[in-house]
Amino acid sequence: MGGSIIILLGAPGAGKGTQAKRLSAATGLAHISTGDLFRENQTQGTPLGLEAKGYMEKGALVPDDLVLRMLFDRVERADTREGYVLDGFPRTEPQAVALTAALERKGAACPLVVQLDLDDRTIIERAAGRLICKSCGNIQHLSFSPPRAPGICDVCGGELHQRKDDQPDVVRERVAVYHRQTAPLVAYYARQGVLTTVDGSREPDDVFQELLALVQPSRVRGED
Ligand code: AMP
User: Fold this and answer.
1) Given 126, 168, 199, 217, which residue has the most CB atoms within 10 angstroms?
2) Residue 218 CB: number of other CB atoms within 10 A?
């Protein structure tokens, strides 16, 4: 669980997934999305997937004990040796406290926490048009990065679909949950002196350049 640990904090639609994928490709750090892990478990029909499903469809958070067990299992895999980018974790104070304690136990370095800041109207607009590739996980958007052919992923030609929890009423609930349960983590990490805030409303390329500059330059592929 050592190496560089980057936590992307932000509301649904703030760009965590898009940026985490790009950061991972540029630095070689593993990309760990707890949302993706739950969706994979659902596709495979595991007990964890089934348990998480009801919460996710409502836009609620999955209980901390399930998330933590899954996350701590995942970070033990060999691809995390150099570090990892966390996307969608932690989402509650108990999750953040458990992560801090685990990192301290391992003598790991402090994580770099980046808040992708975005206003609620833009969050809802972004999530409502979001399209995900069923094959490669590429993220596009009906208005902001429209597919060249309708319904077809620009990267791999796979089928694009809308996540069930990106329906407007579920997105509104997820945004409310974000403010109630996740936003307090901004203060939690600010108190630890490890928080940086980035304006998430800009073009994805601009946000990415800023993120890359924050991550140790030596981590960028081709420079080490
Ligand atoms: P995401 O793909 O990150 O938007 O996550 C989709 C859904 O998975 C969330 O709305 C939650 O229901 C669940 N989820 C993902 N990560 C967490 C987490 N760290 N804690 C609790 N629930 C989570």
Assistant:
1) 126
2) 9
